[in-house]
Amino acid sequence: MIQIAIVDDESRQIKIIQQSIQKFFRQKNRENDYRIDTFHSGESLLSCSRAYDLIFLDIQMNGMDGIETAKKIRTWDRKVCVIYVSNYTEKMAASFTVHPFSFLPKPIRQSDIYKNLEDFLLYTQPEEPKTRLVFQTLEEQISVNMEDIFYFEYGQNRRVKLVATTGCKDLPAFIIKRLKSLEKQMESYGFLVPHKSFLVNPRQILSFGAEIQMKNHEMIPIAKNRRKQVHEQISTYLHNSLNINWRD
To answer: Which of 50, 59, 131, 135 would bridge 66 by S-S if both were Cys, CB 3.0 to 4.6 A apart?
Structure first.
């Protein structure tokens, strides 16, 4: 569960931020994925024993201001994302001494809160552990990170071409293996078969419709009789990849 704190000495500002957060997660059908606590001062936040993933923190408050509050938080929590809220733009420079995640100017706009929440979800999405795979070519064995593979293609001279990120100096390469055998091998990694000649890594998909656009901007065809199934598989992968283990 995502633990969120809103800290502001104005109840009206707290309400604006809180309602925007609630609407944001409701639109994503994730009403049960977060918790919001509200505080009217830096001191009250510091007295709370709960650890937070995200803090909306007003800079200009009565008593301890937001910058001093964040400095104290940073002494025991280096990971929490702090979004500063203020109508004093001259405070921005001082706020960066505690490495904030973002700065939200007043008057607060719902679109700005949405943008910050989208960035937060993207930034905090954990990286998958790298999985190293070995393939045999005509000349040698090559080793590739599974996550770096774009796709396999059956084609020229009945050989299977492996295409991966340009960081792999030996690629693209033609490997000695049947596409059907690769399908079974890569099934556990979620690879898709949009067309009888292609085996695609969903991690490298940029967009999809009648075709799949990969992150290297190549287009992969989707057979008409597989389109519904492939779209469902991609959507399922994208949904599952957003499941994050937050602080309980």
So the answer is: 59
